[in-house]
Amino acid sequence: MKRVCIVGISGKLGRYMLRHALDRGYQVHGVCRAESVGKLADMADRITLFPGRTDDRAVMAAALKGCDGVLAVLVPWGTSGYSTNTADAVLDLADPGARLIFSCGWHITMDGKDRLSRSLRLQLAVFRPLLRLFRIADIGDQERACRHIFDSPRDWTVVRGSDLEEGESEGLPVWADHVDDPAIAHNRTRRIDFALFMVDALANPALIRRAPAIASCRA
Ligand SMILES: NC(=O)c1ccc[n+]([C@@H]2O[C@H](COP(=O)([O-])OP(=O)(O)OC[C@H]3O[C@@H](n4cnc5c(N)ncnc54)[C@H](OP(=O)(O)O)[C@@H]3O)[C@@H](O)[C@H]2O)c1
After folding, report:
1. Which atom of ligand 1 is nearest to the CA of 15?
2. Could you tell me the fold of the domain covering 3-215?
3. What is the pTM of this model?
4. Measuring from atom 45 of ligand 1, which residue has the nearest CA?
């Protein structure tokens, strides 16, 4: 792995992934909205930025070219398919053989066998229609994006994050195939370690075409 593209590099998760990627000696391409370029001013000389929306296929084609790894933040903002179009752009435009790592939350299921906690079910029941009604976000868009990924023959991994918190690293998170696994019942991960898991997955072939649900290694 020599060069990686971080899609959504200016967000909190993206900036942590950038730190980990540079620590590992990767060259970094990054895509973020033009209005967010300033957030990366202190890193400008260490990365190659491609300003634009992550669902803009022309921007994505340029950013992904020559990258053997992709770290993509999937966010369901708006109601115009931002997540799905971002995932499709990565799947369609990344170099052949590239490792593709996507982020999402525990609400996504690959095989339908995840048993969500009552609290997460309640949050989804309340916020899902409200976010859509006010056109703030569309959880269904993130679900469709992941379905496209799960159906793809490419070398993808979908990392499903638990509730997130800030703070110093606690180490590489533990993971399970399903969110109701007792090993991850504590349902919390430091955001810096979510990023660490994403970057680590680039070099972990055991995670290819899997959707690990992660949580802190400190229960
Ligand atoms: N937050 C949680 O508790 C939580 C829990 C589990 C999993 N996750 C997952 O973790 C990942 C990152 O989530 P995060 O909460 O930490 O957020 P984040 O890293 O701060 O990322 C937010 C991203 O969304 C972009 N964004 C913000 N507003 C937007 C808009 N209106 N249109 C398009 N893009 C917009 C940001 O770009 P700009 O820099 O340009 O604003 C940034 O790239 C997501 O995949 C999420 O599903 C989050």
Report:
1. 19
2. Rossmann fold (3.40.50)
3. 0.97
4. 104
Q: Ligand 1 centre and the CA of 11: distance in Å? A: 6
CA separation for the pair 28, 67 (Å, rounded): 9
Tokens of 114: 């995840």
d(CA 86, CA 93): 10
Strand partners, 138: none
**What Rg do the C-alpha atoms of the chain give, in angstroms?**
16
Identify the bridge partners of residue 190 per DSSP, sorted by sequence position: 165
Residues in the ligand 1 pocket, defined by CB under 6 Å? 8, 10-14, 32-33, 36, 73-75, 77-78, 82, 103-105, 161, 163-164, 191
pLDDT tens-digit map of 56-106: 999 999 999 999 999 999 999 999 999 999 999 999 999 999 999 999 999
Alpha-carbon separation of residue 91 from 10, 50, 149, 154 (angstroms): 21, 18, 7, 7
Domain spans, the chain: 3-215
Nearest CA to ligand 1 atom 9: 104
Output 81-85 pairs: Cβ under 8 A, ≥24 positions apart: 81/55, 81/138, 81/141, 81/144, 82/53, 82/54, 82/55, 82/141, 83/138, 83/141, 83/142, 83/144, 83/145, 84/141, 84/144, 84/145, 84/148, 85/55
